[in-house]
Automatic annotation (TrEMBL):
The lineage of its organism: Bacteria, Bacillati, Bacillota, Bacilli, Bacillales. Keywords: ATP-binding, Nucleotide-binding, Transport. This is ABC transporter ATP-binding protein. SMART domains: AAA (SM00382). One of its GO terms (molecular function) is ATP binding. The keyword Nucleotide-binding applies. It comes from the Bacteria. Transmembrane segments: none annotated.
Length: 249
């Protein structure tokens, strides 16, 4: 397995208007086969960080590289190396579940045979077989979220950017997603995952990035950030609470 980072964020400062950065000098990496949790309070800057990674925002300073290249250096390779699951589903009302997955597969150049296998597997895993040919407008909230997830996973890129994916999913859906992320991870894929459900991600992520007011205030494995917080052996939720309290509201 390669030891170069799949995702590298260096001295990233950025925001929605030039004089008012929301992110301040962010530095972190995600290595191949790693699942990294991006955690922070509402407004800490998690989605803004993800928008920079996706190339939807231009940094004021610093930058983002995926597999060693910035988006400007090789836009096509950059974009096809990552898949994104947004916080709220964004679907085409007039497309079916299957058509969304086919659309994603085509965009990422997935071959017909690979696609057929992946589609069958994902529809079964997320218990969406009966809805495969339903228009997305006729789906429940959780089902719409599942379409976003399945469309990202059909592509099998080296890097997944996943923004708060558990909201709206039923307990079986959450379990299926966690199991599938672990499977992708063991096949070498990297995952940057943001979530407020700390007790759920605590045992799944290899490392955590704690964002507070647009800055990284701690990062590392559970035991490393526990040490940084002076709370060896503590649960992620308690460590997080202590770190953000110290960081100031
Ligand atoms: N479109 C926007 N225009 C201007 N400011 C924005 C915009 N979106 C977010 N912000 C601001 O950027 C900061 C970081 O927001 P961001 O959405 O990145 O937080 P977050 O950590 O993802 O929060 P949450 O947990 O609520 O999703 C906040 O102060 C927010 O008000």
């Amino acid at each position: 397995m390669s030891h170069s980072p799949v995702l590298q964020i260096e001295e990233l400062t950025g925001g929605y208007s030039l004089g008012h950065p929301v992110l301040h000098d962010i530095n972190f990496e995600v290595m191949p086969g790693e699942m990294v949790g991006l955690i922070g309070l509402n407004g800490a800057g998690k989605s803004t960080t993800m928008k920079h990674i996706l190339g939807l925002m231009t940094p004021h300073r610093g930058g983002v590289a995926v597999r060693g290249k910035t988006r400007d250096e090789d836009p096509e390779a950059y974009q096809s190396s990552l898949a994104f699951v947004p916080e709220s589903p964004m679907l085409y009302e007039e497309l079916t579940v299957r058509e969304h997955m086919e659309f994603a597969a085509r965009a990422y150049g997935v071959g017909t045979e690979d696609y057929a296998q992946r589609e069958e597997r994902l529809l079964k895993l997320f218990r969406m077989e009966e809805k495969a040919d339903s228009l997305s407008i006729h789906l429940s909230k959780g089902m719409k979220q599942k379409v976003m997830i399945m469309s990202a996973f059909v592509a099998r890129p080296p890097l997944y950017i996943i923004d708060e994916p558990f909201l709206g999913l039923d307990p079986l859906g959450i379990r299926s997603l966690l199991d599938f992320m672990m499977e992708m991870k063991s096949s070498g894929a990297s995952i940057l995952l943001s979530s407020h459900i700390l007790s759920t991600i605590e045992n799944y992520c290899d490392r955590f990035i704690v964002l507070h007011r647009g800055a990284v205030i701690a990062q590392g494995s559970l035991s490393e950030i526990a040490r940084q917080a002076g709370m060896p052996g503590a649960a992620l939720e308690d460590i997080f609470y202590s770190l953000v309290k110290e960081g100031g509201e």
